[in-house]
Amino acid sequence: MKYITTNKIFFLLGILIFTACSDDFLQKDSLSEISASTFWQSESDALSALAACYDGMQSNYLYNGDPYSCGQLNMDALTDNGGHFNWSGWMAGYDICNGTQSANSWLIADYWSSIYEIIKRCNVLIYYIDDIDMDEETIALYKAEAITLRALMYINLTMTYNDVPYLTEPLTISTANVGVTSRAEIVASVISDLQNAYEDLPTTADLGRMTQGAALAILGRIALYNEEWATAIDAYQQIVDLGVYSLYDDYSALFSTSGEESNEIILSVRYEGPGNEEGATFGAHWNTPLEAINGTMDFSDDFYCTDGLPISESSLYLGNDEINTTTSPDSARYLNRDPRLKATLWVPGMDWNGLSWSETGDIYGGATASYSTVYVRKYFDPTNVSNSWDSGQDFYICRYPEVLLSLAEALVESGTYSYSKVTSLVNQVRSRVGMPDVEDVEGASLSADDLLDLIRHERRVELGFEGFRMFDLYRWELWSNSVERINAEAKKYGFNYEQRISRGEQDYVWPIPQDEVDSNSEIEQNELW
What we know:
Elements: H1 6-9, H2 11-18, H3 43-55, H4 72-75, E1 82-83, H5 94-98, H6 106-128, H7 136-160, H8 183-197, H9 212-225, H10 229-242, H11 251-254, E2 265-269, E3 294-295, H12 297-300, H13 340-344, E4 345-346, E5 375-376, E6 395-399, H14 400-414, H15 419-432, H16 438-441, H17 448-463, H18 469-475, H19 479-493, H20 514-519
Antiparallel strand pairs: 1-3, 2-6, 4-5
Protein backbone atom coordinates (compact mmCIF):
# COMPACT_ATOMS: atom_id res chain seq x y z
CA MET A 1 0.00 0.00 0.00
CA LYS A 2 1.28 3.46 -0.79
CA TYR A 3 2.14 5.60 2.20
CA ILE A 4 -0.34 8.44 1.82
CA THR A 5 -3.97 7.34 1.84
CA THR A 6 -5.43 10.76 2.26
CA ASN A 7 -9.18 10.28 2.46
CA LYS A 8 -8.80 7.49 5.00
CA ILE A 9 -6.60 9.20 7.58
CA PHE A 10 -7.41 12.83 7.00
CA PHE A 11 -10.16 12.96 9.65
CA LEU A 12 -8.16 14.25 12.64
CA LEU A 13 -6.86 17.49 11.21
CA GLY A 14 -9.35 17.59 8.39
CA ILE A 15 -12.48 17.52 10.52
CA LEU A 16 -11.26 19.01 13.76
CA ILE A 17 -9.12 21.82 12.40
CA PHE A 18 -9.51 22.63 8.74
CA THR A 19 -12.91 21.78 7.34
CA ALA A 20 -14.68 23.89 9.94
CA CYS A 21 -12.99 27.00 8.57
CA SER A 22 -13.98 29.40 5.82
CA ASP A 23 -12.38 29.55 2.37
CA ASP A 24 -10.03 32.45 3.16
CA PHE A 25 -6.62 31.16 4.16
CA LEU A 26 -6.53 33.31 7.29
CA GLN A 27 -9.94 31.92 8.29
CA LYS A 28 -10.33 34.48 11.04
CA ASP A 29 -14.09 34.05 11.38
CA SER A 30 -13.73 30.62 12.92
CA LEU A 31 -10.33 30.59 14.61
CA SER A 32 -10.03 29.65 18.26
CA GLU A 33 -7.30 28.80 20.72
CA ILE A 34 -6.52 25.07 20.60
CA SER A 35 -4.10 22.64 22.18
CA ALA A 36 -2.79 19.27 21.15
CA SER A 37 -4.67 17.53 23.95
CA THR A 38 -7.91 18.58 22.28
CA PHE A 39 -7.43 16.16 19.40
CA TRP A 40 -4.12 14.28 19.75
CA GLN A 41 -3.76 11.47 22.26
CA SER A 42 -1.06 9.20 20.81
CA GLU A 43 1.68 8.79 18.27
CA SER A 44 -0.83 7.32 15.81
CA ASP A 45 -2.80 10.57 16.04
CA ALA A 46 0.36 12.53 15.27
CA LEU A 47 1.07 10.27 12.29
CA SER A 48 -2.42 10.92 10.98
CA ALA A 49 -1.81 14.64 11.38
CA LEU A 50 1.44 14.30 9.43
CA ALA A 51 -0.41 12.40 6.71
CA ALA A 52 -2.88 15.28 6.53
CA CYS A 53 0.07 17.58 5.80
CA TYR A 54 1.13 15.39 2.89
CA ASP A 55 -2.50 15.06 1.80
CA GLY A 56 -2.62 18.70 0.73
CA MET A 57 -0.11 18.03 -2.04
CA GLN A 58 -2.81 16.10 -3.89
CA SER A 59 -4.67 19.33 -4.61
CA ASN A 60 -5.60 19.80 -8.26
CA TYR A 61 -3.76 23.12 -8.08
CA LEU A 62 -0.51 21.58 -6.86
CA TYR A 63 0.66 18.06 -7.66
CA ASN A 64 -2.51 16.66 -9.15
CA GLY A 65 -4.72 18.30 -11.74
CA ASP A 66 -7.24 17.68 -14.49
CA PRO A 67 -8.17 19.33 -17.79
CA TYR A 68 -9.90 22.22 -16.02
CA SER A 69 -7.75 22.98 -12.99
CA CYS A 70 -4.02 23.66 -13.19
CA GLY A 71 -1.54 21.44 -11.38
CA GLN A 72 2.22 21.51 -11.82
CA LEU A 73 2.10 19.52 -15.07
CA ASN A 74 -0.41 21.97 -16.53
CA MET A 75 1.78 24.91 -15.46
CA ASP A 76 3.97 24.15 -18.48
CA ALA A 77 0.93 24.80 -20.67
CA LEU A 78 1.16 28.46 -19.64
CA THR A 79 4.67 28.70 -21.09
CA ASP A 80 6.40 28.27 -24.43
CA ASN A 81 6.18 24.50 -23.88
CA GLY A 82 2.43 24.37 -24.42
CA GLY A 83 -0.91 26.07 -24.31
CA HIS A 84 -4.69 25.85 -23.93
CA PHE A 85 -5.06 27.03 -27.48
CA ASN A 86 -8.55 25.73 -28.17
CA TRP A 87 -10.28 25.92 -24.81
CA SER A 88 -9.69 29.48 -23.66
CA GLY A 89 -11.66 30.29 -20.52
CA TRP A 90 -12.29 26.67 -19.63
CA MET A 91 -9.01 25.99 -17.81
CA ALA A 92 -7.43 27.70 -14.86
CA GLY A 93 -4.39 29.73 -15.89
CA TYR A 94 -5.36 30.44 -19.47
CA ASP A 95 -5.34 34.17 -18.68
CA ILE A 96 -1.74 34.02 -17.44
CA CYS A 97 -0.85 32.36 -20.73
CA ASN A 98 -2.64 35.14 -22.62
CA GLY A 99 -1.47 38.00 -20.39
CA THR A 100 -4.95 38.95 -19.17
CA GLN A 101 -4.69 37.82 -15.55
CA SER A 102 -5.87 39.90 -12.59
CA ALA A 103 -6.20 39.66 -8.81
CA ASN A 104 -9.55 37.94 -9.38
CA SER A 105 -8.16 35.21 -11.62
CA TRP A 106 -9.17 31.62 -10.97
CA LEU A 107 -5.70 30.06 -10.76
CA ILE A 108 -4.20 32.92 -8.78
CA ALA A 109 -6.76 32.42 -6.00
CA ASP A 110 -6.77 28.60 -5.96
CA TYR A 111 -2.99 28.21 -6.08
CA TRP A 112 -2.69 30.55 -3.08
CA SER A 113 -5.32 28.77 -0.99
CA SER A 114 -4.02 25.28 -1.82
CA ILE A 115 -0.50 26.22 -0.71
CA TYR A 116 -1.59 27.92 2.50
CA GLU A 117 -3.76 24.95 3.40
CA ILE A 118 -0.61 22.82 3.57
CA ILE A 119 1.28 25.50 5.48
CA LYS A 120 -1.47 25.69 8.09
CA ARG A 121 -1.47 21.95 8.61
CA CYS A 122 2.30 21.84 8.92
CA ASN A 123 2.29 24.71 11.42
CA VAL A 124 -0.25 22.99 13.64
CA LEU A 125 1.81 19.81 13.74
CA ILE A 126 5.11 21.63 14.35
CA TYR A 127 3.61 23.78 17.10
CA TYR A 128 1.70 21.16 19.07
CA ILE A 129 3.53 17.87 18.60
CA ASP A 130 5.81 18.47 21.60
CA ASP A 131 2.74 18.08 23.85
CA ILE A 132 2.31 14.43 22.84
CA ASP A 133 3.92 11.64 24.82
CA MET A 134 6.30 10.41 22.12
CA ASP A 135 10.02 9.70 21.95
CA GLU A 136 12.10 12.73 21.02
CA GLU A 137 13.55 11.13 17.88
CA THR A 138 10.10 10.57 16.38
CA ILE A 139 8.98 14.08 17.30
CA ALA A 140 12.09 15.48 15.61
CA LEU A 141 11.41 13.34 12.52
CA TYR A 142 7.78 14.45 12.15
CA LYS A 143 8.76 18.07 12.69
CA ALA A 144 11.50 17.84 10.08
CA GLU A 145 9.07 16.36 7.56
CA ALA A 146 6.56 19.15 8.16
CA ILE A 147 9.25 21.86 8.05
CA THR A 148 10.57 20.53 4.75
CA LEU A 149 7.11 20.30 3.21
CA ARG A 150 6.34 23.84 4.39
CA ALA A 151 9.59 25.01 2.79
CA LEU A 152 8.52 23.56 -0.56
CA MET A 153 5.30 25.54 -0.32
CA TYR A 154 7.18 28.78 0.32
CA ILE A 155 9.23 28.15 -2.82
CA ASN A 156 5.99 28.02 -4.80
CA LEU A 157 4.67 31.18 -3.13
CA THR A 158 7.79 33.31 -3.46
CA MET A 159 8.28 32.29 -7.09
CA THR A 160 4.82 33.55 -8.00
CA TYR A 161 3.47 36.16 -5.56
CA ASN A 162 6.93 37.27 -4.34
CA ASP A 163 6.22 38.93 -0.94
CA VAL A 164 3.59 36.98 1.01
CA PRO A 165 2.41 36.38 4.59
CA TYR A 166 5.05 34.22 6.28
CA LEU A 167 3.26 31.91 8.69
CA THR A 168 5.28 29.66 10.99
CA GLU A 169 2.76 29.17 13.81
CA PRO A 170 -0.99 28.42 13.91
CA LEU A 171 -3.18 31.48 13.60
CA THR A 172 -5.57 32.49 16.33
CA ILE A 173 -8.29 35.10 16.52
CA SER A 174 -5.85 37.63 17.88
CA THR A 175 -3.21 36.96 15.19
CA ALA A 176 -5.49 36.41 12.21
CA ASN A 177 -4.55 39.54 10.26
CA VAL A 178 -1.02 39.06 8.93
CA GLY A 179 0.85 41.33 6.56
CA VAL A 180 3.39 40.26 3.97
CA THR A 181 7.06 39.50 4.57
CA SER A 182 9.65 40.26 1.91
CA ARG A 183 10.71 37.44 -0.34
CA ALA A 184 14.33 37.85 0.73
CA GLU A 185 13.45 37.41 4.42
CA ILE A 186 11.32 34.35 3.71
CA VAL A 187 14.04 32.75 1.59
CA ALA A 188 16.69 33.33 4.26
CA SER A 189 14.46 31.85 6.96
CA VAL A 190 13.46 28.83 4.86
CA ILE A 191 17.09 28.10 3.99
CA SER A 192 17.96 28.17 7.68
CA ASP A 193 15.01 25.89 8.51
CA LEU A 194 16.11 23.33 5.95
CA GLN A 195 19.74 23.42 7.00
CA ASN A 196 18.66 22.69 10.58
CA ALA A 197 16.00 20.10 9.76
CA TYR A 198 17.47 17.80 7.14
CA GLU A 199 19.75 15.90 9.51
CA ASP A 200 16.66 14.74 11.47
CA LEU A 201 15.42 12.99 8.33
CA PRO A 202 16.47 9.49 7.26
CA THR A 203 18.62 8.76 4.24
CA THR A 204 15.90 6.48 2.89
CA ALA A 205 12.22 6.15 3.81
CA ASP A 206 8.88 4.92 2.53
CA LEU A 207 8.18 6.38 -0.89
CA GLY A 208 6.42 9.73 -0.63
CA ARG A 209 7.97 10.71 2.71
CA MET A 210 10.70 13.27 3.21
CA THR A 211 14.31 12.14 3.32
CA GLN A 212 17.64 13.92 3.61
CA GLY A 213 17.86 13.86 -0.18
CA ALA A 214 14.43 15.47 -0.54
CA ALA A 215 15.22 18.20 1.99
CA LEU A 216 18.55 18.94 0.30
CA ALA A 217 16.86 19.02 -3.12
CA ILE A 218 14.32 21.55 -1.82
CA LEU A 219 17.13 23.53 -0.18
CA GLY A 220 19.09 23.52 -3.43
CA ARG A 221 16.02 24.60 -5.39
CA ILE A 222 15.20 27.62 -3.27
CA ALA A 223 18.88 28.62 -3.21
CA LEU A 224 19.20 28.26 -7.00
CA TYR A 225 16.00 30.19 -7.63
CA ASN A 226 17.30 33.05 -5.49
CA GLU A 227 20.89 33.11 -6.76
CA GLU A 228 22.41 31.77 -3.55
CA TRP A 229 24.95 29.83 -5.59
CA ALA A 230 27.21 28.56 -2.81
CA THR A 231 24.26 27.24 -0.81
CA ALA A 232 22.83 25.55 -3.89
CA ILE A 233 26.16 23.95 -4.79
CA ASP A 234 26.62 22.62 -1.27
CA ALA A 235 23.11 21.17 -1.09
CA TYR A 236 23.22 19.52 -4.49
CA GLN A 237 26.71 18.12 -3.98
CA GLN A 238 25.58 16.56 -0.71
CA ILE A 239 22.82 14.73 -2.61
CA VAL A 240 25.35 13.37 -5.10
CA ASP A 241 27.62 12.32 -2.25
CA LEU A 242 24.82 10.41 -0.52
CA GLY A 243 25.20 7.76 -3.19
CA VAL A 244 21.51 6.89 -2.94
CA TYR A 245 20.29 8.14 -6.32
CA SER A 246 20.95 7.05 -9.89
CA LEU A 247 19.36 7.45 -13.31
CA TYR A 248 16.69 5.00 -14.45
CA ASP A 249 17.71 3.16 -17.60
CA ASP A 250 14.49 3.70 -19.57
CA TYR A 251 13.39 7.34 -19.77
CA SER A 252 10.29 6.43 -21.79
CA ALA A 253 9.04 4.12 -19.00
CA LEU A 254 10.03 6.39 -16.13
CA PHE A 255 6.77 8.35 -16.15
CA SER A 256 4.59 5.30 -15.72
CA THR A 257 3.70 3.19 -12.71
CA SER A 258 6.60 0.88 -13.56
CA GLY A 259 9.05 3.73 -12.93
CA GLU A 260 7.66 4.97 -9.61
CA GLU A 261 10.16 3.10 -7.43
CA SER A 262 13.23 4.10 -9.41
CA ASN A 263 16.24 5.37 -7.47
CA GLU A 264 15.96 8.47 -9.63
CA ILE A 265 12.87 9.66 -7.76
CA ILE A 266 13.87 11.78 -4.77
CA LEU A 267 10.37 12.94 -3.78
CA SER A 268 6.98 12.03 -5.19
CA VAL A 269 3.33 12.54 -4.40
CA ARG A 270 1.86 9.07 -4.15
CA TYR A 271 -1.45 7.96 -5.61
CA GLU A 272 -3.29 4.67 -5.26
CA GLY A 273 -5.77 3.63 -7.88
CA PRO A 274 -8.02 2.75 -9.49
CA GLY A 275 -10.99 2.17 -7.22
CA ASN A 276 -9.36 3.23 -3.94
CA GLU A 277 -10.52 6.87 -3.78
CA GLU A 278 -6.83 7.81 -3.99
CA GLY A 279 -6.33 8.05 -7.75
CA ALA A 280 -4.60 10.81 -9.68
CA THR A 281 -6.19 12.81 -12.50
CA PHE A 282 -3.23 14.83 -13.78
CA GLY A 283 -2.84 12.33 -16.67
CA ALA A 284 -6.55 12.18 -17.46
CA HIS A 285 -7.68 11.76 -21.05
CA TRP A 286 -10.55 10.45 -23.09
CA ASN A 287 -9.96 8.29 -26.16
CA THR A 288 -7.38 10.67 -27.62
CA PRO A 289 -4.41 12.65 -26.33
CA LEU A 290 -5.85 15.26 -24.02
CA GLU A 291 -7.26 18.13 -26.04
CA ALA A 292 -6.70 20.77 -23.37
CA ILE A 293 -2.94 20.34 -23.00
CA ASN A 294 -1.27 21.13 -26.29
CA GLY A 295 2.43 21.23 -26.95
CA THR A 296 4.12 23.82 -29.14
CA MET A 297 6.27 23.43 -32.22
CA ASP A 298 8.77 25.65 -30.42
CA PHE A 299 9.16 23.01 -27.72
CA SER A 300 9.19 20.00 -30.04
CA ASP A 301 11.77 21.72 -32.25
CA ASP A 302 14.06 22.24 -29.25
CA PHE A 303 14.82 18.52 -29.02
CA TYR A 304 18.07 18.03 -30.92
CA CYS A 305 18.78 15.39 -33.50
CA THR A 306 20.58 12.25 -32.37
CA ASP A 307 23.92 13.71 -33.47
CA GLY A 308 23.51 16.32 -30.71
CA LEU A 309 22.90 19.20 -33.11
CA PRO A 310 19.79 21.42 -33.28
CA ILE A 311 17.45 20.79 -36.19
CA SER A 312 18.69 23.99 -37.86
CA GLU A 313 22.21 22.53 -38.11
CA SER A 314 21.83 18.76 -38.34
CA SER A 315 21.95 16.79 -41.59
CA LEU A 316 19.74 14.21 -39.86
CA TYR A 317 16.75 16.56 -39.76
CA LEU A 318 14.11 15.47 -42.29
CA GLY A 319 11.27 17.89 -41.58
CA ASN A 320 9.74 20.63 -43.71
CA ASP A 321 9.61 23.85 -41.72
CA GLU A 322 7.17 25.48 -44.12
CA ILE A 323 4.39 22.90 -43.76
CA ASN A 324 1.25 23.71 -41.81
CA THR A 325 1.24 20.50 -39.82
CA THR A 326 -2.43 20.91 -38.91
CA THR A 327 -3.47 20.18 -42.48
CA SER A 328 -0.39 18.16 -43.53
CA PRO A 329 1.03 16.28 -40.54
CA ASP A 330 4.80 16.09 -40.93
CA SER A 331 5.94 12.91 -39.17
CA ALA A 332 9.37 13.07 -40.83
CA ARG A 333 10.42 16.06 -38.74
CA TYR A 334 10.29 13.88 -35.62
CA LEU A 335 12.64 11.19 -36.91
CA ASN A 336 16.28 10.96 -35.77
CA ARG A 337 15.57 13.05 -32.72
CA ASP A 338 16.48 13.00 -29.02
CA PRO A 339 14.48 10.05 -27.59
CA ARG A 340 13.06 12.33 -24.92
CA LEU A 341 10.94 14.04 -27.58
CA LYS A 342 8.60 11.07 -28.06
CA ALA A 343 8.70 10.26 -24.35
CA THR A 344 7.53 13.80 -23.56
CA LEU A 345 5.25 14.68 -26.47
CA TRP A 346 2.72 13.01 -28.75
CA VAL A 347 3.57 13.97 -32.34
CA PRO A 348 2.50 12.84 -35.82
CA GLY A 349 3.79 9.37 -36.59
CA MET A 350 3.22 7.99 -33.09
CA ASP A 351 0.54 5.45 -32.24
CA TRP A 352 -2.21 6.11 -29.74
CA ASN A 353 -3.32 2.91 -28.02
CA GLY A 354 -2.28 0.88 -31.05
CA LEU A 355 -3.92 3.17 -33.61
CA SER A 356 -1.87 5.11 -36.14
CA TRP A 357 -2.72 8.47 -37.64
CA SER A 358 -3.51 6.84 -40.97
CA GLU A 359 -6.03 4.50 -39.36
CA THR A 360 -8.05 7.23 -37.68
CA GLY A 361 -7.63 10.89 -38.49
CA ASP A 362 -8.96 12.27 -35.24
CA ILE A 363 -6.93 10.36 -32.66
CA TYR A 364 -4.72 13.37 -32.10
CA GLY A 365 -7.23 15.43 -30.22
CA GLY A 366 -10.68 14.51 -31.44
CA ALA A 367 -13.17 17.34 -31.65
CA THR A 368 -10.76 20.00 -30.45
CA ALA A 369 -7.48 18.87 -31.97
CA SER A 370 -4.29 20.81 -31.31
CA TYR A 371 -3.43 23.28 -34.05
CA SER A 372 0.22 22.25 -33.73
CA THR A 373 -0.61 18.48 -33.68
CA VAL A 374 1.65 18.29 -30.62
CA TYR A 375 0.34 16.99 -27.28
CA VAL A 376 1.69 15.90 -23.91
CA ARG A 377 2.92 12.30 -23.70
CA LYS A 378 4.74 12.39 -20.34
CA TYR A 379 2.57 10.79 -17.61
CA PHE A 380 -0.20 9.96 -20.11
CA ASP A 381 -1.01 6.28 -20.64
CA PRO A 382 -3.00 5.67 -23.84
CA THR A 383 -3.74 2.08 -22.84
CA ASN A 384 -5.47 3.16 -19.62
CA VAL A 385 -8.45 5.00 -21.07
CA SER A 386 -10.97 3.69 -18.53
CA ASN A 387 -8.86 4.55 -15.44
CA SER A 388 -7.04 7.72 -16.45
CA TRP A 389 -9.31 9.73 -14.13
CA ASP A 390 -8.47 7.40 -11.24
CA SER A 391 -4.84 6.51 -11.83
CA GLY A 392 -2.22 5.06 -9.52
CA GLN A 393 0.51 7.11 -11.21
CA ASP A 394 2.69 9.11 -8.79
CA PHE A 395 3.76 12.69 -9.53
CA TYR A 396 7.49 13.34 -9.21
CA ILE A 397 8.43 16.54 -7.39
CA CYS A 398 12.19 15.98 -7.36
CA ARG A 399 14.21 13.75 -9.70
CA TYR A 400 17.96 13.19 -9.74
CA PRO A 401 18.47 14.86 -13.17
CA GLU A 402 17.17 18.12 -11.68
CA VAL A 403 19.93 17.85 -9.08
CA LEU A 404 22.63 17.23 -11.70
CA LEU A 405 21.54 20.05 -14.00
CA SER A 406 20.92 22.49 -11.15
CA LEU A 407 24.36 21.75 -9.71
CA ALA A 408 25.88 22.40 -13.13
CA GLU A 409 24.00 25.70 -13.42
CA ALA A 410 24.97 26.87 -9.94
CA LEU A 411 28.62 26.03 -10.58
CA VAL A 412 28.71 28.09 -13.78
CA GLU A 413 26.79 30.97 -12.21
CA SER A 414 29.21 31.01 -9.26
CA GLY A 415 32.04 31.92 -11.61
CA THR A 416 34.39 29.33 -10.13
CA TYR A 417 33.92 25.98 -11.79
CA SER A 418 35.72 23.16 -13.50
CA TYR A 419 34.68 22.78 -17.15
CA SER A 420 34.94 19.01 -16.97
CA LYS A 421 32.88 18.93 -13.77
CA VAL A 422 30.06 20.92 -15.36
CA THR A 423 30.01 18.92 -18.58
CA SER A 424 30.20 15.61 -16.71
CA LEU A 425 26.97 16.51 -14.92
CA VAL A 426 25.23 17.34 -18.20
CA ASN A 427 26.70 14.27 -19.88
CA GLN A 428 25.18 11.98 -17.27
CA VAL A 429 21.73 13.25 -18.19
CA ARG A 430 22.38 13.08 -21.92
CA SER A 431 24.00 9.66 -21.97
CA ARG A 432 21.02 8.06 -20.22
CA VAL A 433 19.03 8.55 -23.45
CA GLY A 434 21.94 7.90 -25.79
CA MET A 435 22.67 11.52 -26.71
CA PRO A 436 26.34 12.41 -27.32
CA ASP A 437 28.54 14.10 -24.73
CA VAL A 438 29.01 17.85 -24.71
CA GLU A 439 32.66 17.66 -25.70
CA ASP A 440 31.88 15.46 -28.71
CA VAL A 441 29.53 18.07 -30.15
CA GLU A 442 30.32 21.49 -28.66
CA GLY A 443 33.97 20.94 -27.79
CA ALA A 444 35.86 21.71 -24.59
CA SER A 445 36.06 25.50 -24.69
CA LEU A 446 32.52 26.86 -24.38
CA SER A 447 32.18 30.20 -22.62
CA ALA A 448 30.23 30.51 -19.38
CA ASP A 449 27.31 32.01 -21.28
CA ASP A 450 27.37 29.15 -23.78
CA LEU A 451 27.46 26.62 -20.95
CA LEU A 452 24.44 28.27 -19.35
CA ASP A 453 22.56 28.15 -22.66
CA LEU A 454 23.41 24.47 -22.93
CA ILE A 455 22.21 23.75 -19.38
CA ARG A 456 19.02 25.72 -19.92
CA HIS A 457 18.32 23.72 -23.07
CA GLU A 458 18.92 20.48 -21.20
CA ARG A 459 16.55 21.52 -18.39
CA ARG A 460 13.82 22.20 -20.90
CA VAL A 461 14.00 18.88 -22.73
CA GLU A 462 14.68 16.77 -19.62
CA LEU A 463 12.12 18.36 -17.26
CA GLY A 464 9.37 19.35 -19.69
CA PHE A 465 5.83 19.19 -18.28
CA GLU A 466 7.04 18.59 -14.74
CA GLY A 467 6.28 22.12 -13.53
CA PHE A 468 9.72 23.74 -13.90
CA ARG A 469 9.44 25.76 -17.08
CA MET A 470 7.39 28.67 -15.76
CA PHE A 471 9.67 29.17 -12.76
CA ASP A 472 12.73 28.93 -15.02
CA LEU A 473 11.40 31.58 -17.39
CA TYR A 474 10.56 33.79 -14.43
CA ARG A 475 13.97 33.56 -12.78
CA TRP A 476 15.83 33.98 -16.07
CA GLU A 477 13.46 36.85 -17.00
CA LEU A 478 12.74 35.28 -20.38
CA TRP A 479 8.94 35.34 -20.26
CA SER A 480 8.56 38.11 -22.87
CA ASN A 481 10.97 36.26 -25.14
CA SER A 482 8.85 33.12 -24.86
CA VAL A 483 5.70 35.09 -25.69
CA GLU A 484 7.34 36.47 -28.82
CA ARG A 485 8.41 33.02 -29.97
CA ILE A 486 4.96 31.47 -29.61
CA ASN A 487 3.27 34.39 -31.37
CA ALA A 488 5.83 34.04 -34.16
CA GLU A 489 5.10 30.31 -34.37
CA ALA A 490 1.39 30.97 -34.79
CA LYS A 491 2.09 33.42 -37.61
CA LYS A 492 4.65 31.24 -39.37
CA TYR A 493 2.53 28.12 -39.53
CA GLY A 494 -0.89 29.75 -39.70
CA PHE A 495 -1.98 28.32 -36.36
CA ASN A 496 -5.11 29.83 -34.86
CA TYR A 497 -3.49 30.39 -31.47
CA GLU A 498 -4.84 32.97 -29.07
CA GLN A 499 -2.66 36.05 -29.01
CA ARG A 500 -0.21 36.09 -26.11
CA ILE A 501 0.64 39.36 -24.43
CA SER A 502 3.71 40.30 -22.41
CA ARG A 503 3.02 42.62 -19.46
CA GLY A 504 6.59 43.57 -18.62
CA GLU A 505 7.39 43.47 -14.90
CA GLN A 506 3.91 42.16 -14.13
CA ASP A 507 4.83 38.93 -15.90
CA TYR A 508 7.13 37.98 -13.03
CA VAL A 509 4.90 38.49 -10.02
CA TRP A 510 1.31 37.39 -9.49
CA PRO A 511 -1.15 39.68 -7.72
CA ILE A 512 -2.32 38.71 -4.25
CA PRO A 513 -5.85 37.28 -4.61
CA GLN A 514 -8.38 40.07 -4.26
CA ASP A 515 -10.41 38.18 -1.65
CA GLU A 516 -7.36 38.13 0.61
CA VAL A 517 -6.74 41.84 0.19
CA ASP A 518 -10.39 42.56 0.95
CA SER A 519 -10.55 40.36 4.05
CA ASN A 520 -7.22 41.21 5.70
CA SER A 521 -6.56 44.77 6.81
CA GLU A 522 -2.81 44.08 7.06
CA ILE A 523 -2.35 43.02 3.42
CA GLU A 524 -1.74 45.52 0.67
CA GLN A 525 -1.75 44.52 -2.97
CA ASN A 526 1.62 44.21 -4.67
CA GLU A 527 2.54 47.64 -5.99
CA LEU A 528 2.78 46.33 -9.57
CA TRP A 529 -0.90 45.40 -9.40
